[in-house]
Design brief:
This is Dipeptidyl aminopeptidase. It comes from Streptosporangium minutum. By secondary structure, the chain is mainly beta. It has a domain of 263 residues: Rossmann fold (3-Layer(aba) Sandwich), CATH 3.40.50. It contains ten helices and 35 strands. It has an eight-stranded mixed sheet with strand order 28-29-31-30-32-33-34-35, with helices on both faces. It has a four-stranded antiparallel sheet with strand order 1-2-3-4, with no helix packed on it. Strands 5-6-7-8 form a four-stranded antiparallel sheet, with no helix packed on it. Strand 5 and strand 6 form a beta hairpin. The longest helix has 19 residues. It is globular, with a radius of gyration of 25 Å. The two termini are 27 Å apart.
Length: 635
């Protein structure tokens, strides 16, 4: 067997954005590098026969960022976005199925942000900002131009503007399956206004320009979808019942169609007969459901082992395609009938079959208050439980509304199999706040991050110690984003961990509200904004910075310099506190990087640095079984 290297991880390719042709014969998708080449990302458009009868074919060269394939209504050509004419400026292109040179359809100065080929084939609905020269003076509310709904005539190349939406930013579009009007989601600002963000739902009639306003949506609305109730067409969409919690599907009166379900919808697609399909996070697995127009409830039609996402449906609804991954297979494109066997169409990482992987186990256990929890355990490569106890690294997922599904755990951020190949056992918990167990489970962290979710994680660690899997003297913890917050929180609550990784983590919720992209939405997690009065404030009790004086654990801090989701100031504040109290730590800033780390050299550094950091403090299991102080282990 070959040795897994950080270079092999970051030099791979991944599929994304599959889309099934209306006639169900073809699936188009994007293949892009795991890492970014130089300054700009790149990607290529591929197609594959949906029945697997012929091998996939690359349609575009991949020398620019080609992405977002969308089928023409007659399934004979593909529309896609590309910055091949000017890096960073996306324009609409079209290419025939037999390949050849792609045709540029727009040269809009500000670029195209969204597009939807319309029934009939002569028009494309396009979202683009006005072509104004940028102003060097930044005036709040004016520095980011609003995306406006326009209709591109493919015969003349001319644009028509739909004016009925006023001064609102167009975010998402969906045409009624019978070729009728558009369902449109709009925002009050194009950049997620961090104080008073609002989303509204509209129906736009293309023939008259008339707009029917359906009012303000639930929080974080997405995926407008048409469905036929039996007495006419209506619109539904994904959103949050509150500021914090699991997703739900809402109708156009903004009533939940998934209330009471103990799983979480996250992908919603319309079908010509009016019965939408949806993917649901179901614990560690994924399920396909169909909306029943009589009961107005979703009914399960298939259970999928592991992780699936990016659902796409042909016009009739008789075929679906999506990305899927299982514990030892990376994400690939699959297709088939929605309730039947799905076949793999792409094979983007065949080189990974040369490696042995750590055994990945499903965990089911209870929290200290009796709540049922799940998670994953990855054992060191070539080892079994009987070979324990092992040094254990707990990796907490982001979000917190996310999850560790039972998928292949290998990516450029510190990941389960990367650490398992170095000899560590890895615990991947899904504490309350995670998706996959319904709204109430996810909403349990409202105003309470770091509380019960932290004890949920501890319950899993204690279980693994009791079962002889984890060595209590060699525990590490880490994560990215909210996982980075949990790592910073953990070391202020206990000295049980010998090493921690805080990746793009939150140290102060009040400062995050002041400077992060989401603003007051983050107050849903921390419980206060700071401007309610002189305090004390709820968010101070839930901020890791407040417990810096108690920290004894060495901490590796990693952060992107241009992160706007969790700004660099969060890491700098924690770093200064650790310096003040003399805590051993390392503070690493990656230039030009945002919330995810994308450049190849930075990804390599992150992988190698993380494994070395835990190795120095937990011992290197591959060299010898030794304690962190270098003395031989008694095992």
């Amino acid at each position: 067997m070959s040795e897994l290297t950080s270079q092999l991880i970051v030099d791979g390719a991944v599929p994304s954005d599959p889309t099934l042709s209306p006639d169900g014969r073809w699936v188009a998708y994007t293949i892009a590098s795991v890492r970014r080449k130089g300054e700009h990302p790149s990607g290529a458009i591929w197609i594959a026969a949906a029945d697997g009868s012929s091998p996939p074919k690359q349609l575009t060269a991949g020398t620019a960022k080609d992405s977002g394939p969308r089928w023409a209504p007659d399934s004979t050509s593909l529309f896609f976005g590309s910055d091949r004419m000017k890096r960073g400026n996306t324009q609409l292109h079209r290419i025939a199925l037999d390949g050849g040179e792609a045709e540029a359809l727009t040269t809009w100065k500000s670029g195209i942000s969204a597009y939807l080929p319309l029934a009939g084939g002569g028009l494309v609905a396009v979202v683009a900002a006005d072509e104004n020269e940028p102003d060097d003076v930044k005036v709040w509310g004016q520095q980011v131009p609003h995306g406006r709904l326009r209709l591109l005539d493919l015969d003349t190349g001319e644009f028509g503007v739909m004016d009925g939406l006023g001064d609102r930013h167009v975010a998402e579009l969906a045409q009624r399956p019978d070729g009728g009007p558009l369902a449109v989601l709009t925002w009050n600002a194009p950049d997620l206004d961090p104080v008073s963000f609002s989303c509204e739902l509209h129906v736009v009639h293309l023939d008259t320009g008339k707009v029917r306003h359906l009012g303000r949506t639930a929080s974080e609305a997405s995926s407008p979808t048409w469905w036929n109730t039996g007495d006419g067409w209506r619109v539904c969409y994904l959103g949050l019942p509150g500021e914090v919690g699991g997703n739900a599907v809402f109708d156009e009166e903004h009533r939940s169609l998934t209330a009471g379900m103990n799983l979480c919808p996250f992908d919603l697609k319309q079908v010509a007969d009016g019965r939408p399909l949806a993917l649901f996070a179901d614990g560690l697995d994924t399920a396909i459901h169909r909306l029943d127009p009589d009961t107005r409830r979703f009914q399960r039609i298939a259970s999928l082992t592991g992780w699936a996402t990016s659902l796409t449906v042909n016009h009739s609804g008789e075929a679906v395609a999506m990305l899927m991954s299982t514990p030892y297979e990376p994400a690939n494109v699959y297709a088939g009938p929605p309730g039947g066997r799905l076949i793999r169409l792409s094979d983007t990482r065949p080189e990974l079959r040369e490696f042995r992987w750590g055994t990945q186990e499903r965990l089911a256990y209870q929290a200290s208050d009796g709540l049922d929890l799940d998670g994953l355990l990855i054992l060191p490569v070539g080892r079994s439980r009987q070979d324990g106890p092992f040094p254990l690294i707990t990796l907490v997922h982001g979000g917190p509304y996310d999850r560790h599904p039972d998928r292949f755990m290998l990516n450029p951020h510190p990941s389960g199999q990367w650490l398992a190949t170095a000899g560590y056992a890895v615990f991947l918990p899904n504490p309350r706040g995670s998706m996959g167990h319904g709204h109430d489970f996810a909403a349990a962290v409202a105003g309470a991050v770091g509380m019960e979710e932290w004890t949920d994680i501890l319950s899993g660690i204690d279980l693994l110690i009791a079962e002889g899997v984890a060595d209590p003297d060699r525990l590490g913890i880490g994560g990215w984003s909210h996982g980075g917050f949990m790592a910073a929180w953990a070391v202020g609550q206990t000295d049980r961990f010998k090493a921690a990784l805080m990746g793009a983590g939150i140290s102060d919720w009040g400062m995050l509200l002041a400077s992060g992209d989401l603003g007051t939405l983050d107050a849903g997690f921390s419980g206060s904004c700071g401007w309610e009065g002189p305090g004390p404030h709820r968010h101070d009790r839930l901020s890791p910075i407040s417990y810096a004086s108690k920290i004894q654990t060495p901490v590796l801090i990693l952060h992107g310099e241009e992160d706007t989701n969790v700004p660099l100031s969060q890491a700098t504040y924690f770093h200064r506190a650790l310096r003040w109290f003399g805590v051993e730590h390392e503070f690493v800033v990656y230039p030009r990087e945002g919330h995810p780390i994308l450049e190849r050299d930075h990804q390599l550094d992150m992988l190698e640095r993380t494994r070395a950091w835990f190795g120095r403090r937990l011992g290197d299991p591959l060299k010898r079984d030794e304690s962190p102080d270098g003395t031989a282990s008694a095992r």
